[in-house]
């Protein structure tokens, strides 16, 4: 099991080849966490560009348009499953609606792919994402995830963008509710990432 969890893959991707130098270059790229947002989804472009500039082959897939069986087939041909940022609650609701949860978890735990995440992509592998339920933008999606359960691959939750002024209000809400939220939290700046390999974890920084 290998996971590279970041605030932003665009600022940390060079670290991945250092912790896993034998890793291949084929990436299954999932941008669906950004589905609820309108306008310029610049953070998706940042992730895509980061992979391409370092020589990765980016194969994009829209989870709204495929079946669990097709996702399972695609994961067997790729080296990396990358999940971009956006809404963690929407992303989990989409996984559930389409039946992707177990397919993704099995691919991670059986070492079919290395999982990489930006922001929401790093959040959703946690057992519980309740810390993000206080964000007003998540309210409409929480109704579809009333148990606040993530994929359950790790037993703590990433809090991304901790040095980004745009997220100050969101972080204040998370800290205010920490005594009542069940999951251990790991705060990451945009130039930081966590590498998990089986039962070992490393903190990385550019």
Protein topology:
Layout: E1 2-6, H1 9-12, H2 14-19, E2 26-30, H3 42-53, E3 57-61, H4 68-75, E4 80-83, H5 88-98, H6 101-109, E5 114-118, H7 120-123, H8 139-142, E6 156-159, H9 168-176, E7 184-187, E8 192-197, E9 200-205
Parallel strand pairs: 1-5, 2-3, 2-4, 4-5, 6-7
Antiparallel strand pairs: 1-8, 8-9
Would you mind describing this structure in some detail?
The protein is globular. It has 9 helices and 9 strands. It has a 7-stranded mixed beta sheet. A two-stranded parallel ribbon has the order 6-7. A hairpin with a 2-residue loop joins strand 8 and strand 9 (200-205). The two termini are 23 Å apart. The chain has a single domain (2-205), classed as Class I glutamine amidotransferase (GATase) domain (Rossmann fold, 3-Layer(aba) Sandwich), CATH 3.40.50.880. It has 206 residues and is an alpha/beta fold.
């Amino acid at each position: 099991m290998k996971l590279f969890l970041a605030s932003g893959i665009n600022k940390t991707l060079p670290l991945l080849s250092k912790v896993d130098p034998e890793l291949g270059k084929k990436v299954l790229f999932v941008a669906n966490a950004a589905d609820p947002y309108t306008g310029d989804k610049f953070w998706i472009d940042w992730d895509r560009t980061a992979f391409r500039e370092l020589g990765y082959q980016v194969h994009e897939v829209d989870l709204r348009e495929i079946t669990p069986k097709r996702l399972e087939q695609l994961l067997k041909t790729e080296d990396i499953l990358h999940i971009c940022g956006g809404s963690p609650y929407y992303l989990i609701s989409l996984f559930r609606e389409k039946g992707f949860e177990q397919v993704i978890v099995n691919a991670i735990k059986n070492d079919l792919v290395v999982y990489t995440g930006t922001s929401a992509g790093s959040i959703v592998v946690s057992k519980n994402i309740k810390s993000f339920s206080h964000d007003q933008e998540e309210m409409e999606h929480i109704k579809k995830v009333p148990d606040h359960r993530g994929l359950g691959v790790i037993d703590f939750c990433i809090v991304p963008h901790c040095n980004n002024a745009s997220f100050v209000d969101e972080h204040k809400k998370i800290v205010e509710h920490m005594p009542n939220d069940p999951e251990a939290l790991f705060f990451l700046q945009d130039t930081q990432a966590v590498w998990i390999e089986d039962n070992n974890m490393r903190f990385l920084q550019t």
